[in-house]
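Much of what follows relies on a compact textual record of a protein's fold. Think of the row as the fold of the chain written in a discrete alphabet. An example makes this concrete, so a full record is given next.


***
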Amino acid sequence: METEYAEPADLAFLRGAVGDGEGGAGGLGWEGVRAFEAAHGVVLPEPYRTFVAEMADGSAVGPPAYGLVPLGTLPEGWGQGRPERVLDRPFPLTEPWFWEQEEAGPCPELDARIEEVFDHGSVVLGAEGCGMYWHLVVTGPDRGHVWLVTGEGAGPFGAEFGFTTAAPGFAGWFRHWSSGQSWFGTE
């Protein structure tokens, strides 16, 4: 999966899907994207980077269920008093982790690891409802992959991870949504 350069076919698809910002705020512009990246010490993966700069910085048209949130913002229901998100620290996972199956009872080490999943190395794309949030990894080995992070665990999106037949990454995630398939359908 290419994260440094946007594939022209992916950009054409995304541009057609949102109509250059219809249903959203329009693109943030390259100056805005570069300012965000400099402030957080990251470079956003393609094609999301071009999508946010040129097409839509947030959008009611497109995934997830409650729309894409603008870059650097959090969906309604994220919670008050949460730690500051640290984008330049690597996203800690490379394979699914369902922490609800871990040790029962208070465990500060486990809680700290869970907080890292929610708050390190990713931008939040939006909410699916019921405490389910889509994240795009911006730092770490899974850079460019989309993950679903919930109160029970976290898992990556894409055929290579076995949860769907869709292509990985932002464009694959967006394509899968636009096809009308269930997020976790395998057909």
